[in-house]
Amino acid sequence: MKTLVTINNINKIYQQGQVNTHALQDVSLQIQEGEFIAISGPSGCGKSTLLSILGLLDTASDGQYVLADIDTKTLNVDQRSQVRNKHIGYVFQSFNLIDSLTVFENVALPLEHRGASKKDIKSAVEKQLAAVNMTGRLDHTPSQLSGGQQQRVAIARALVGEPDLLLVDEPTGNLDSQNGDAVMQLLLELNRQGTTIVMVTHDERYSRMAKRQIRLFDGKVLVEQQEAVA
Ligand SMILES: Nc1ncnc2c1ncn2[C@@H]1O[C@H](COP(=O)(O)OP(=O)(O)OP(=O)(O)O)[C@@H](O)[C@H]1O
Prior knowledge:
Layout: E1 3-16, E2 19-32, E3 36-40, H1 47-54, E4 62-67, E5 70-71, H2 77-87, E6 88-91, H3 103-113, H4 118-131, H5 147-159, E7 165-169, H6 177-192, E8 196-200, H7 204-207, E9 212-217, E10 220-226
Parallel strand pairs: 3-8, 3-9, 6-7, 7-8
Antiparallel strand pairs: 1-2, 1-4, 4-5, 9-10
Bound molecules: adenosine-5'-triphosphate.
Residues 14, 16, 21, 23, 41, 43-49 line the site of adenosine-5'-triphosphate (ATP).
């Protein structure tokens, strides 16, 4: 299996006035293609910080992050957003869909940023919405959808550019248990089809479904468990 992510001794220190918060302390991690990793741990332990660094939404204070053989330290701002657009899909707890756009337009956004043709956008968006079982809602706006449906559209948007890595932050956090279960089943199915997933979750039930579980505590990796390969 190919290594997709290597992080070595990542530290993240937030500075706010006189106060320094050491949110991540010497975290090292390798992610292979095809893995499904759940990151859990108590509130404030650094889960979202780690995910934002993996997603190139934030930078580490020090340490190394290599994504798809690219040393991210060498990237300027434009290159970072290009690498993010090409290699990463990000799903937020609060969906982050744009309500003035339709479902189709929301999912099309990453491809429009890449300058893809209208024809390619149409076929990729329709394929992705079918994969999350949201065909038939193309012209709705997000506010006309249930929370579970909005999260499925957000997953379609994250996957439409065929990223190498899907990062999901508390994907079920704003959903009732039925919709949460459905989103989790969708993520498991996407992983079975080959998508590499890193998911932050508070929910033990969901973290146990991942093949590999990482527990953070006070910004450090506390325990790591991996499902035995039969
Ligand atoms: N922008 C910021 N500025 C200052 N401190 C921050 C910032 N973001 C996070 N922190 C601090 O860094 C630590 C880790 O925060 P983080 O959001 O990564 O935790 P978390 O495990 O995702 O928490 P939760 O489960 O509550 O979402 C916390 O102490 C938090 O207060």
